[in-house]
Amino acid sequence: MSEFEPTIVAFFCNWCTFTAADLAGTSRLSYPPNIKIIRVMCTGMVDPQYIIKAFLEGADGVLVSGCHPGDCHYINGNYKARRRIKLLKEILPQFGFDSKRLRLTWIGASDGIRLAEIMRTLVSQIKELGPSQSKLSMVI
Amino acid sequence: MAPKNGKALVVGAGISGIRAALDLAEYGYGVTLIDTSPNIGGILSQLDYQFPTDSCGMCKMLPLFNRDEGSQYCLRKGLFHENIEILLSTDLISVEGEAGQFKATVRQHLNWVDPKLCTGCGYCADVCPVDIPDKFNENIGTHKAVYLPVPHAIPNPYIIDFASCTRCGACIKACPTDAIKLPQDKRNSFHILVVDDELVMRDSLKEWLTEERFSVDMAASGSEALDMLKAKPYDLMLLDIMMPGMDGVEVLQKAKENFADLNVIMMTAYATVETAVEAMKIGAMDYLVKPFDPDALTPMILRIFQDADGAAEDRQIEVGALVLCSGTGFFDPGSGKNPFGYKTYPNVVTSLEFERMISGTGPCQGKLLRPFDGKPVKKAAWIQCVGSRDLQTDADFCTGICCMFAIKEAVIAKKTSDQNIETTIFYMDMRTYGKTFQRYRDQAKNIYGVNFARERIHSVIQDMATGDLLIKSVDVSGNSKEDRFDLLVLAVGQRPAEGMSKLAELAELALNEWGFGKTGPFSLAKTSREGILLGGSLTGHKDIGDLLIQASSAAVNASRFIHSKGGDLSTEHTLYHPPSGVMKEIPKILIVICTCGNRFLQLADSDHIAGQLKADPLIDKVVFSEKLCTDQGLGNLVELVKEITPNRLLIAACLPYVYKLKAKKLGNEIGLDPALIEIVDINTGYSHLLNPNACYEENKTEILDEESSSASTHHLLSIIETGIAKLKWADASETPKVSVCQKTLVVGGGIAGMTAALAIADHGFEVDLVEQSEQLGGNLNWLKRTLDGHSANELLKNTLESVKKHPKINIHTQSEVINSAGEAGNFHTEVKDPQNQIHTIEHGVTILATGGSQAPTQSYCYGTNPAIITQKELEIKLSDNTIDPEKLHSVVMIQCVDSREEPRNYCSRVCCANALKHALCIKDKNPNVSIYILYRDLMAYGFYEAYYTQARKAGIVFIQYSTDDKPLVEIENNELSLSVFEPILGKRLQIETDIVVLATGIVPNISQNLADMFGVSLDQDGFFQQAESKWRPVDSLKEGVFACGLVHSPRNIAETIATAEAAAQRALGIISHKYLTGSRITASVHHSNCALCEQCINACPYGARTVDYDNERIFVNPGICQGCGTCAAVCPNSASVLDGFIKQQMLAIIDVATG
Q1: pLDDT at residue B641 is higher than 60
Q2: CB contact under 8 A, A30 and B156
Q3: Could you say which architecture CATH assigns to the domain B187-293?
Q4: Which of B386, B643, B941, B1119 has its CA 20 to 30 A from that of B777?
Q5: Nearest of B651, B650, B655, B647 to residue B673 by alpha carbon
Q6: Contact B687 A28 (CB under 8 A)
Q7: Which fold has domain B741-851+1005-1075?
Q8: B152–A26 CB contact, under 8 Å
Q9: pLDDT tens digit sequence for B822-850
Q10: Facing residue for B74 by CB, picked from A40, A53, A109
Q11: Is residue B1000 over pLDDT 80?
């Protein structure tokens, strides 16, 4: 049997992390194709519903990444994301998902290398956790 | 918005040039922004971190209104604005005419890589055999001769370094889009004549140039040279100035008479530089200072060769004004005696090199490693003032930014190494004169443990075995010290940029005595030539916040000239109107996939992809296009759209950012709203999948095996499907807008308020100027002169006159603001007049200029004896002659009274200059007087340093004191006695003095109540809180409210005026529009779902949302909303939505992503 290849959904903010992803691309740094990048304007707009939806649709991991604290283009959206994700991590196990499957990071525009590193580590961590299995049927 | 008639040229696309260009573009003028280098961003593109956030926030300077006119992505990546044309690798060649009607010629140097075709894939660099030093990384590490000038910029075409390219042609074969064309090498038919009386010089030049494959002849004298010129045509003459017989200038004159087009470079010794500059006036192109090495010569000659070879395009631009922001150079610490072993010891680096070392895009990938052996740096030292404040290197000035730069670098080093590094800064004075700087320094020391050592380093020795640096220093009291470090960072001082004298020459600008641009009096931007403004570090290094203020001040003055020549008249503009009803039509989607040569077909099964996509009934057609990026490809697309008439278009190609720009144009051409054109990036898909070597290996048509081909097909398909998901829900309804009341309220009638009012009124907009007291003028009513000898009196007189007679300015003295409400574009403010009548003023923007005053004090026995006075009192007493300098025997000045320590832990910036001014004035009138200035760090920043030097030469005694042992003032029997510990002598001194002058600093004049009325915050010291200290330096978080002058921060008069002009420029950005238009990405509310829970109101960081109680609705001001979408995330009923990112789109995209 071939190795388990996880599906990871990544919400990247338009200003910092998406730029870093683009930089990683143009610098041709390799990162696993398991990660599906979704551009959002700000991590502050990532509705918990999106994250839960991703898990329920079969994502094995979700990565949310934005600007460094104090750096948010929209002043404080990243702080709001931080609060929201902390709470979500508490709730996720009740839906049957290991909270380690959800990750929040701050990656600046010039951190292409760090982003590639983080994505590689995340993929290997999720591989260790194995495929995610929703214990609930579709609720959304 | 209809663009205006006026045009401006901004030279230099660093951070200042960008600010000035954006300011002028936001106002509506057409701007041409040029830069010599192949990228924008200047020095800032190399700096990842800025204090006080210790990261980056550059994007925050992008326009907040009419956002769809410009780029909405990281500014490091690039800049786009409808009104800005950016020309890179471009020089300013000449400026003719006068303000309002300049004719500027610019020369763009073309590269061998066609930027229109290059997709940035990088295959060329893979095969290039030549390695050259990496300039972006300050020459640490190498890249290929074909390279990306900045790794993260877009559009990001590769460029070829002409000097090092061997023309092997490997890149041509590797390029999938045929973007590279290497011209035939015509160097051997480029004839150079070397004229020098010294044989050694001639020989070595001939050797170098022949090595570069040029054809070279030599002449030993002027007359010989002239004969040779007649005998054979030459392309270039290298001409020595000092020659026996006919000298270089004479030869030049005679040569130019017969051969006007001949390119001439003068060669000069250091002593005759002025002659060389003179020579440029009579037609020399440039000059070289002897001795020079081939590294300096070759690029200059190559550039001339390229230009002659037709690789440059000249253009004439007609503009109303010019803003020059072409940057600065740096001192080369390896020159001269090189006391710190720069370039000799690998572990000695400059501050800029250090920035690249800790950068994520740098050569060490953000890890701090010793250049000597690649081991981690455990102990680093910074040396301040290398090539600044140093008479030996002819630098009697302070570079102004290095202290903060070094503190920031030390803090970042601590942060990135998790405190596993010891950091020491060796300094003379820690010049923390800006807002919040002092607290940042204290934090560096107390929280991060950065050591500050006021010591002078006399020698640096490298341990040859270990590479460690042995640093020997002497402290203030003369004790020798010695320590080992892994890394030594030199805070290199500023020098005028290369080509500064040439620029000054062609633009007829005055330079100061060190070769920097000269402005003023009382302006940081105005020059002696009307219509040419200066910005940026061209006039001396500044902190980012100050640079942006200066740039905006330059912009507003440029704008005045343009306006006065009718620049505000509109040019015709065809606005695109979407066909009505498109939103009600069923989506009919055309998908165009760029196959990028045949790369796509190698990777994926196109039939399968087309089949899968067509299964969706909304997809009308799937078309594969060979090269969409070419003009032909795009032309084909236009034809196709016209034939099929889809109502939505999906383009799958590379470089989505570039296509986004094209989409608008394309939309106009094909009659499709840009919101209905979606671009997805399948290039990143390629990068994942394609073996980078596959493309140029011999077997070009290598087909991937079946399994990976199916995987890549799947991957590319999912990328395209994401785009479809987004497109299906795309909304092209008209962007909402709010009307603007095109009037301004300025609160405070000091020099800042009056300047701001004038700057706005000069653009034809009405201003209400409210002043609490009886007369306008503020602090200038007592402040008479400045350190640099200009009369503040005259400034006040002229300004008052202009303000009073200006038809657009309504002055309200003895009036007070009672209340204010509203938001950007529409404020209503109640003002009480002297008769206690209340008037309501309607205005679109507010500028707070309520000023500041000298801080009160009770320290040092102030108030108990008339001999103890403040600096302000001294100023007044010197003006009205109540103090006669000739009767004084001894004067003591105490600096930093109650300042730079809690609770007033900030530097007031003007006190040291003020003390120097008064000390020099007294000393001038009475050379026998003894003057003692007791200071902590002497803040003679920038070109004030020369006055500090002058003061010391005049015999004024400077004694440094520390906060643990402050000077002691005692009064016994009405006798004044003062004692202070003198660290150099190591003794306590008793000083007899006639007067003690206290510098108590500045406190702002604004009450919390007034701040609340206008919705602005105050910082912990009571000054105006900026939205962002670096990137939005005069804005408040409440949009439409700006501040300037002393209420903003302590500043001298010229700096105060700059803040006022900057605030005026920001205000003009709003009131010059009849409407504030939102963006396609703006929040809105579905009122039927809204439960009025008001959670979105709390979540909105911009205050864009209000409750409309009359209609029981939430109102979103589309001008203020920035489209972050936080409101949509908090809305429990999905009533709040972010247009462009609506929930249906997001969920559909997640569906595709989870596949």
Answers
A1: yes
A2: no
A3: 3-Layer(aba) Sandwich (3.40)
A4: B941
A5: B647
A6: yes
A7: FAD/NAD(P)-binding domain (3.50.50)
A8: yes
A9: 999 999 999 999 999 999 999 999 999 99
A10: A109
A11: yes
CA dist B61 and B429 (Å) reads 32
**Buried b / exposed e along A76-85 (16+ C-beta atoms within 10 A):** bbbbbbbebb
> Which CATH number do you get for residue A38?
3.40.50
Domain ranges of chain B: 7-109+321-327+497-564, 123-174, 187-293, 330-491, 584-728, 741-851+1005-1075, 855-1001, 1082-1138
pLDDT one-digit tens code per residue, B652-686: 887 777 777 777 778 878 888 888 898 888 765 45
Interface of A with B in 69-98 (CB under 8 A): 70-71, 73-77, 80, 84
In a domain, A103, yes or no: yes
* Same fold for the pair B187-293 and B1082-1138: no
Q: How many CB pairs under 8 A join A and B?
A: 157
Query: Are B1124 and A19 a contacting pair at CB < 8 A?
Result: no
Q: Which residue of B has its CA nearest to A50?
A: B1147
Residue B359 and residue A15: Cβ atoms within 8 Å?
A: no
Interval B320-339 mean pLDDT: 92
Query: Rounded distance, CA B933 to CA B919, Å?
Result: 8
pLDDT of residue B572: 59
Class of the domain covering B1082-1138: alpha beta
Cα dihedral B190, B195, B199, B202 sign? negative
pTM, entire model: 0.92
- Looking at every residue in chain B, the average pLDDT score rounds to 90
Chain position carrying tokens 């925050």: B60
d(CA B472, CA B460): 6
On whether any CB of chain B is under 8 Å from the CB of A122, the answer is: no
Strand ranges inside B65-150, DSSP E: 84-87, 90-98, 101-109, 131-133, 142-144, 146-147
A25–B1124: do the CB atoms touch at under 8 Å? no
Which residue numbers in chain A have pLDDT < 50? Answer: 135-140
Share of chain B above pLDDT 70, in %: 96
Which of chain A's residues have a Cβ under 8 Å away from the Cβ of B689? 33
pLDDT of residue B271: 64
What is the CATH code for B855-1001?
A: 3.50.50.60
Determine the angle formed by the axes of helices A112-129 and A17-26, rounding to 10 degrees.
100
Establish if A134 belongs to a structural domain: no
Q: ipTM strictly over 0.90?
A: yes
Q: Is A138 inside a domain boundary?
A: no
pLDDT band at B530 (very low <50, low <70, confident <90, very high): very high
Identify the domain containing residue A110 by its residue range. 8-129
